[in-house]
């Protein structure tokens, strides 16, 4: 058996790591686009995650999730995660479908 050493964290290091995670989330945006390419929702990834956590604790969240999924498919919505670069512009992150070449 291996011996485990206890790990200690200071309150300051935990707060600093939390700030880094929020900053990384603020550099990314969640964009939901219509079939025409027009953005329907454009929010910071941090806000999207916070909303998802709140939504999870609603009493019948699974029903709303099902309704939203059906509406999203019916409207042919596209979900994108974009990363902002230093000059204020954005670049799109690649999705798995873009990496696959036509055979």
Question: What's the topology here?
Answer:
Blueprint: H1 11-26, E1 28-33, E2 39-44, H2 45-56, H3 61-74, E3 78-84, E4 90-92, H4 96-99
Antiparallel strand pairs: 1-2, 1-3, 3-4
Provide structural commentary:
Helix content is 45%, strand content 21%. It is built from four helices and four strands. It has helices at residues 11-26, 45-56, 61-74, 96-99, and strands spanning 28-33, 39-44, 78-84, 90-92. It has a four-stranded antiparallel sheet. Strand 3 and strand 4 form a beta hairpin. It is extended, with a radius of gyration of 19 Å.
N/C terminus separation: 51 Å
Overall pLDDT level: 78
Oligomeric status:
single chain
SS content category: alpha+beta
Task: Tell me what portion of residues adopts beta-strand conformation.
Answer: 15-25%
Poorly predicted runs of 5 or more residues? 94-103
Main β sheet profile: 4 strands, antiparallel
Radius of gyration: 19 Å
Helix content: 40-55%
Query: Can you count the helices?
Result: 4
The beta-strand count equals 4
Global outline: extended
In the sheet with the most strands, the strands line up as 2-1-3-4
One letter per element, helices H and strands E, the order comes to HEEHHEEH
């Amino acid at each position: 058996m291996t011996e485990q050493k206890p790990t200690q964290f200071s309150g300051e290091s935990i707060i600093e790591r939390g700030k880094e995670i929020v900053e990384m989330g603020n550099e990314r945006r969640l964009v939901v686009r219509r079939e025409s390419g027009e953005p329907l929702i454009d929010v910071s990834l941090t806000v999207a995650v916070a909303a998802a956590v709140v939504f999870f604790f609603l009493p019948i969240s699974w029903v709303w999730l099902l309704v939203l999924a059906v509406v999203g498919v019916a409207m042919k919505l596209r979900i994108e995660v974009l990363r902002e670069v230093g000059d204020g512009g954005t670049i799109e992150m690649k999705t798995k479908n873009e990496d696959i070449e036509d055979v």
